[in-house]
Amino acid sequence: MTTITLLPGDGIGPEVTAATVRVLEAAGAKFEWEHHAAGAEALALHGDPLPDDVLESIVRNRVALKGPITTPVGGGFQSVNVRLRRALDLYANLRPARTLPGVPSRFSGVDLVIVRENTEGLYSGIEHEVVPGVIESLKVITEKASLRVAQYAFEYARSHGRKRVTTVHKANILKLGDGLFLDCARRTAAAYPEIRHDDRIIDNLCMQLVMRPETYDMLLLENLYGDIVSDLCAGLVGGLGVVPGANIGEVGAVFEAVHGSAPDIAGQNLANPLALMQSGVMMLRYLDLHEPADRIDAALDAVLAEPRLRTRDLGGEASTTEFTESVVRALG
Ligand code: NAI
Ligand code: MG
């Protein structure tokens, strides 16, 4: 039996991971789950928010399903999410954001795939105080990381029948760093003549996305732009409760939703588990388990078509567990 590392995380994490495991199992995808604490709980238990055994478990199993983990603002420990992605070199963050049948949103026909560079940029975490009152935060862009994430995006486009990749940057101002990222994307694009490549300056892209999101296909972005534009794109298709994701590298992949730990609704059975369930579907497809993946997709569509059965963030009335049980029933 396939073993999968399960990181429930904190905030709404334990609620949405329990819901997702329930649905995966009900769809007939039987896994051995290796539970691990990470974040504040692991810090209290082991003195480290990301103990070595978590990384070892993911390297051994090659696949993890992960709930969100809270990061203290300002001081406190370094983001566990960022550490995990860097320690395992999970260089591509894949986030499909599409209009779902039955999910209310301002737009229809949105079908975007975001590929975010996941290991460097401003997330390198290199900051220092030059003199009191002056801070430098360094943005690191390397040719190696830029080329491999571009290659991942174009390979994904090719294997998923996508027609166009738009590289997003601020190379007019950050001529060297973003310039290198754009140059690497252009060099990579040359090997994929069937896929159209173009680019947009990030501020213009944001305006265009909120005006005409249906005109874009795949977006390739460095780390911070990808983080921000991911939440923007979630807003185009119904909010953070509906957008799944995967962090992919050579050692394996960690599947998690775009949203965070949502402390405002944690522990109240209110969280929408849909985004993590869809991340679970991405995990099944990564493992070539298409039959249960198709079944869950169909069950989610059937439940979302019924307004009352949706969670409150989507205008419905269902709690996390009620939504989950509706999906299980729809699986038949
Ligand atoms: P957030 O995504 O947790 O929440 C933003 C808003 O969206 C809140 O109003 C929340 O209630 C709502 N929301 C998010 N997910 C939802 C869901 N599944 N169902 C219903 N409503 C949902 O972002 P925020 O508040 O900025 O971050 C909270 C914490 O999460 C921070 O410590 C942050 O660092 C962490 N975080 C962790 C991530 C991860 O583990 N990958 C990703 C993003 C944030
Ligand atoms: Mg984010």
Characterize the structure shown.
This protein has 332 residues and is of the alpha/beta class. It has two domains: 1-94 and 239-332, 3-Layer(aba) Sandwich (Isopropylmalate Dehydrogenase), CATH 3.40.718; 106-236, 3-Layer(aba) Sandwich (Isopropylmalate Dehydrogenase). Helix content is 40%, strand content 17%. It contains eleven helices and twelve strands. Strands 2-1-3-12-11-4-5-10-8-9 form a ten-stranded mixed β-sheet, with helices on both faces. Strands 6-7 form a two-stranded antiparallel ribbon.
What's the topology here?
Layout: E1 3-7, H1 13-26, E2 32-35, H2 40-46, H3 52-61, E3 63-66, H4 80-87, E4 92-98, E5 111-117, E6 127-131, E7 134-137, H5 143-159, E8 164-169, H6 177-189, E9 196-201, H7 202-211, E10 218-221, H8 223-236, E11 246-248, E12 253-255, H9 274-286, H10 290-304, H11 320-331
Helix pairs in contact: 1-9, 1-11, 5-6, 7-8, 9-10, 10-11
Bound molecules: 1,4-dihydronicotinamide adenine dinucleotide and magnesium ion (MG).
Question: What's this entry about, in short?
Answer:
The chain is of the alpha/beta class. The protein has helices spanning 13-26, 40-46, 52-61, 80-87, 143-159, 177-189, 202-211, 223-236, 274-286, 290-304, 320-331; strands spanning 3-7, 32-35, 63-66, 92-98, 111-117, 127-131, 134-137, 164-169, 196-201, 218-221, 246-248, 253-255.
